[in-house]
Design a protein that fits this description.
666 residues; alpha+beta; Nucleotidyltransferase, domain 5; Actin, Chain A, domain 4; Substrate Binding Domain Of DNAk, Chain A, domain 1; 4 domains; 6-stranded mixed sheet; 28 strands; ATP-binding; ATP-dependent protein folding chaperone; Chaperone protein HscA homolog
Length: 666
């Protein structure tokens, strides 16, 4: 009799095969991808050995986007088309972006949907599409390193991300061709990386201050169960805000006013050049302003220099700074660690009330915490560590690179979900960050699922009708801690129809909220006497619609060959630039001494041919020109090497470099 080959759900049927699942930290400033290999969770580097990928995307006309270091290097020269800190825009609506306007040197447009779009030379793009490019690059890096096709991933999000921001993250992953097995809260991932599940049982705190978000989570380990007790934070607070504080100080110190950055007069706050009045001109006004592009370049340059100064003061007590003015002059000065601390102290202080709140929610005191884990690049600042130590009364744990710790934890969770370790080795109980409820009469919110409720969870509550004969009901789903709907975020609306006509208060309508392990919500409403029912999987208006996602996926498939060709062209252009620079430098150094006039002319002709090919749009032509220049410079390279060897040997005897003869046996 034939036997069935049975395997556990989620596990590979091959007994010794490993299923790779990626752990991805999609960060505001930098992103990373990690995986468990040979039992060790490790971040995966690029071809140059760099583990961090700057979360920056530059869009080009008629070419594939550039992601990472190459994009950030020219961000100040091409600010309209180089998008950084896009995580701060994920799941945001138009009004949210207007409030963030002063910190964003981009030009926004408003499409038919509530999601704002960024205008670039490649078209109008949503934050979801920009994030998808970062995820695509991380996916390419992982597949090149692992040598295998990988589609499954666990992606981390700030614990304080609301439903709209979480859904936007999943949408970005779908566009990037990734299957998200779990959205994991960043503090929980950090706790896994530190192995808190293997330490003494008790309460731990994860303090996560990144580039654009702040989270603090209180976790308890009890008998192998890893439970999040409470979480709080601010999804619009991080190192970016510190950079703006430093940039504003640089403006004041250099005597730069609105006439240098805004086009007006007087000294003012650093802000987006198209939002100097009320913020409403943020949409579509940028290029119509005189000097707006130059303003954006100066803004980007200021922010770049501010970040470099802040990072330098992590190790040094003083760092030189300089600022280029609009008139071409340069102001030079210095920034001390004490000055930096005074500038960012108000921002660091904003992280302490959430710390108090999680302790209060859990009914604990600071001295009951066994350990504090630091996460995020901004926690490298000495003043941040001092503040955390003062608040909790103990030195924080910081022996893992705060930039990598979240990705490593995500890889550990991904390995478990992928079926590569026993399921009972790891049990995570996460919580929702904000209360969920519905609108009731009077414009008030009835909370059905309180904040810090462990997920996954299902909660139900009965409601009734307000008027006699009412046959339909509008269910308005909201998220937030306030009591009035105007102070909470609207997530979705749907209708329940088919209610039999009854006297007011006679109908019994049960509304059920279900939150899955990713923190995503679905809501249903059922009239108990007739069984009439309606439900909605909440997809906030700030996220992408199904039609938009379908369009992006169709475009991705339809333009796959074009995208690959554009990427190949860009790679050949980079190689051409590298070779032109190297040959030009060699000619300047040794051409007159080692080459005849004819030989030099031949090489220079090949360089000119490569420059022409490089500016074209045919990758094969560039490759042929590179090979031709390589062949023409072969003899020159050999002569330079021989010359270098002769210079190294000058003044020495050959015997000095010969090995000593072995002693003869006696």
């Amino acid at each position: 009799m034939a036997l069935l080959h049975i395997s556990e759900p989620g596990r590979t049927p091959a007994p010794h095969a490993r299923r790779y699942v990626l752990g991805i930290d999609l960060g505001t400033t930098n992103s990373l991808v990690a995986c468990v290999r040979s039992g060790v969770a490790e971040t995966l580097p690029d071809d140059n050995g760099r583990h961090l990928l700057p979360s920056v995307v530059r869009y080009l006309r008629g070419a594939a986007p550039v992601v990472g270091y190459e994009a950030i290097a020219v961000a100040h020269e091409d600010p309209l088309n180089t998008i950084a800190s896009v995580k701060r825009l994920m799941g945001r609506g138009v009004e949210d972006v207007k409030r963030l306007g002063r910190t964003l040197p981009y030009e926004f447009t408003q499409a038919d949907s509530a999601m704002p779009r960024i205008r670039t030379v490649a078209g109008e793009l949503s934050p979801v599409e920009v994030s998808a490019e970062i995820l695509k690059e991380l996916k390419r890096r992982a597949q090149a390193t692992l040598g295998a096709e990988v589609r499954d991933a666990v992606i981390t999000v700030p614990a304080y991300f609301d439903d709209a921001q979480r859904q936007a993250t999943k949408d970005a992953a779908r566009v990037a061709g990734l299957n998200v097995l779990r959205l994991l809260n960043e503090p929980t991932a950090a706790a896994l990386a530190y192995g808190l599940d293997r330490r003494a049982e008790g309460v731990y705190v994860v303090y996560d201050l990144g580039g654009g978000t702040f989270d603090v989570s209180l976790l308890r380990l009890n008998r192998g169960v890893f439970e999040v007790l409470a979480t709080a934070g601010d999804s619009a607070l991080g190192g970016d805000d510190m950079d703006h504080a430093v940039a504003e100080w640089l403006m004041r110190a250099a005597g730069i006013g609105d006439d240098d950055v805004q086009g007006g007069t007087g000294v003012g706050r650093l802000q987006h050049p198209a939002s100097r009045d009320t913020g409403t001109s943020l949409y579509g006004a940028g290029d119509r302003m005189s000097g707006a592009t130059a303003d954006r370049k100066r803004l980007r340059r200021l922010l770049r220099d501010a970040r470099a100064a802040r990072e330098a003061l992590t190790q040094n007590s003083r760092t030189p700074v300089q600022v280029a003015r609009a008139d071409g002059s340069v102001w030079e000065g210095a920034l001390t660690r004490a000055q930096l601390q005074a500038l960012v102290e108000p921002l660091i202080d904003r992280t302490l009330p959430p710390c108090r709140r999680v302790l209060r929610d859990a009914g604990l005191r600071a001295d009951e915490v066994l350990g504090v884990v630091l996460v995020g690049g901004a926690t490298r600042m000495p003043r941040v560590r001092e503040k955390v130590a003062e608040f909790f009364g103990r030195a924080p744990l910081a022996d893992i690179d705060p930039d990598r710790v979240v990705a490593v934890g995500a890889a550990i969770q991904a390995d478990a979900i992928g079926g590569n370790r026993r399921d009972d080795d790891l049990l995570l109980l996460d919580v929702i960050p904000l209360a969920l409820g519905i609108e009731i009469m009077g414009g008030m919110v009835e909370k059905i699922v309180p904040r810090n409720t462990t997920i996954p969870v299902a909660r139900a509550q009965d409601f009734t009708t307000y008027k006699d004969g009412q046959t339909a009901l509008l269910v308005h789903v909201l998220q937030g801690e306030r009591e009035l709907i105007a102070d909470c975020r609207s997530l979705a609306r749907f209708e329940l129809r088919g209610i039999p006509p009854m006297a007011a208060g006679a109908a019994r309508i049960r509304v059920t909220f279900q939150v899955d392990a990713d923190g995503l919500l679905s809501v249903s409403a059922r009239e108990q006497t007739t069984g009439a029912e309606s439900h909605v999987a909440v997809k906030p208006s700030y996220g992408l619609t199904d039609a938009e996602i379908e369009r992006m996926l169709r475009d991705s498939i339809a333009h796959a060959r074009e995208d690959e060709a554009a990427r190949t062209l860009r790679e050949q252009q980079v190689e051409a630039d590298r070779m032109i620079e190297a040959v030009t430098a060699a000619l300047a150094a040794d051409g007159a001494r080692l080459l005849s006039a004819d030989e030099r002319a031949a090489i220079e002709a090949r360089v000119a041919e490569l420059k022409v090919a490089r500016d074209g749009d045919e990758a094969r032509a560039i490759k042929r020109a590179v090979e031709a220049l390589d062949g023409a410079t072969g003899g020159f390279a050999a002569r330079r090497m021989d010359d270098a060897v002769r210079a190294a040997l000058a003044g020495h005897r050959l015997e000095e470099f010969s090995p000593s003869p072995e002693p003869k046996p006696r």
